[in-house]
Write a structure and sequence with these properties.
There is one protein chain. By secondary structure, the chain is of the alpha/beta class. Helix content is about 35%, strand content about 25%. β14 and β15 form a beta hairpin.
Length: about 500
């Protein structure tokens, strides 16, 4: 099935977020969409999948003009959307999730469960997933839930599959399995739109790439005819220089601000010891499940440790809660941005100032709105946060701009120690570059930074030293000059 759009546009509250997009998709093709956060690619695929109705323009399937007004009409036309975060019904069975919305019978008593389960098993088997269709969804991994969404699309005889950042929550092994399925579906004639910020993924899986910038479709290229640097330049309108590890004056003093001595948390990590210097960026590398996040949460007081000692500025401390840690000068940017980083239904400026209640309220505890606006506006401008106003709900911002808000919140608290857990996950290369500059600037100002990242090039570009963890233990602490992707992986997979 061929899909074509002519002059597709979308306006929200008078703001043009998508303009005259002319796009085509062929059967048996993986067509990647890339662009900065807020560039318009997600708005575009939401139009194709019926979440949004276009303000202008037309959609054609096999040269026939169609109307897609709802997700149901999209599915009836053979278009299915696989979300970044699985949209499953956790209390229902795998089979119910696969056939949700198109089970035979007018009520559950008349559903032919034997046929539904058999059909589900057949579809799951076709994509290499060995899961009992009678199992309840709750407890399944994100990767399995995502595969079940794909199975659901196949059950509806979808001809076009839209995958919006599908690899973001997956481990490298799970990404590999997903790509195997994508290639299989492609060989069967499925047309696939694939959105990702990871250019290495785009290059591995896509036939063509379409680049969006500021609501415009900039260009479409065959993937083998365009370099990563060219893609980046199309995305952000400029080239990005390679980032090198930056030394600073504080590091010369060799001042240790935090000492972690043999802390253990039964079942998660054991005998963790390291020092953190003022002005240092200390990277934490390791495979998923190595215990890095658990260590970070423990230092921040979000989790308890069973043994060991933490020394901060020469004194033994025990952060019994995040509030206690914040008061001492700790800050933590979590991996799970939506669940732990933001108050989604709250205004941007209220999110940014949420860590400094005493500075934005009077002696009676009443919030000073002018102070909130002034303090938040400084960081909105400083970090080029794209929004309509400070009173816009933070959940309406792109992922990259949300992340900038979270970092702004913690910088307002003037922390001595900043813990960054996967700070660039799900953001585009332009925002990444900006964040790298921010991180280096903070270190140069004396902030001690713990950086957890699964992207080894990121660790190698920023961290002065690298702590490698495996199965809850530190296997090696490397100076940057002695580190490479190969050496890090060596210590990440073997003791």
């Amino acid at each position: 099935m061929n899909l074509t759009t002519k002059n597709i546009g979308k306006t929200f509250s008078g703001v043009n977020v998508l303009r005259k997009v002319n796009f085509d998709l062929n059967p048996g093709e993986v067509h990647a969409l890339v662009g900065e956060n807020g560039a318009g690619k997600s708005t575009f695929v939401k139009i194709l999948s019926g979440v949004y109705t276009p303000t202008e323009g037309d959609i054609f399937l096999d040269s026939k003009k169609i109307q897609i007004n709802t997700p149901i009409t999209a599915q009836k036309n053979g278009v299915s959307l696989i979300h970044q975060e699985p949209q499953s019904f956790s209390h229902l069975s795998v089979a119910e999730n696969i056939f949700m919305g198109h089970m035979e019978g007018s009520n559950f008593s008349r559903v032919k469960w034997k046929d539904i389960n058999q059909s589900s098993e057949k579809i799951l088997s076709s994509i290499g997933l060995e899961i009992d269709p009678k199992n309840i969804m709750e407890g399944l991994s994100i990767a399995d839930q995502q595969m079940i969404e794909i199975a659901g699309a196949l059950s509806k005889n979808s001809k076009i599959l839209i995958m919006d950042e599908p690899t973001s929550p997956l481990t490298p092994n799970e990404v590999g399995k997903l790509f195997d399925i994508v290639k299989q579906l492609k060989d069967q004639g499925m047309a696939i739109i694939f959105i990702s910020h990871r250019l290495e993924e785009i290059r591995a899986i896509a036939d063509r790439v379409t680049i969006f910038r500021d609501g415009d479709l900039i260009t479409t290229k065959k993937i083998n005819e365009v370099s990563n640097q060219e893609i980046i330049k199309y995305m952000i309108g400029r080239s990005i220089e390679d980032i090198d590890v930056k030394e600073n004056d504080y590091l010369k003093n060799n001042e240790i601000i935090l000492s972690v001595n043999n802390i253990s948390q039964y079942g998660n990590f054991k005998n963790i010891s390291f020092d953190l210097k003022k002005g240092e960026i200390l990277g934490f590398a390791g495979l998923v499940g190595a215990g890095r996040t658990e260590v970070a949460k423990t230092i921040f007081g979000a989790e308890n440790f069973d043994e060991g000692e933490i020394n901060f500025k020469g004194s033994v401390i025990s952060n019994k809660s995040p509030n206690e840690a914040i008061q001492k000068g700790f800050a933590y940017v979590p991996e799970d941005r939506k669940q732990m980083g933001i108050f989604g239904s709250v205004a941007v400026e209220d999110n940014i100032t949420s860590a400094i209640p005493n500075e934005i309220s009077n002696k009676f505890g009443l919030i000073n709105n002018r102070s909130v606006s002034t303090k938040s506006e400084e960081y909105i401008n400083k970090f080029n946060i794209v929004l309509t106003s400070g009173r816009q709900l933070i959940q309406e911002l792109s992922g990259g701009n949300q992340q900038k808000c979270i970092i702004s919140k913690w910088l307002l608290s003037n922390p001595s120690i900043l813990i960054l857990d996967e700070p660039t996950r799900g953001v585009d290369v332009g925002v990444k570059s900006e964040m790298y500059e921010i991180i280096n600037q903070l270190a140069a100002m004396g902030t001690a930074i713990i950086l957890i990242s699964s992207e080894l090039p990121e660790i190698l570009s920023l961290a002065h030293r690298i702590v490698v963890m495996r199965e809850g233990q530190i296997t090696k602490i490397l100076d940057n000059k002695d580190a490479s992707q190969e050496t890090i992986m060596k210590f990440a997979i073997s003791a």
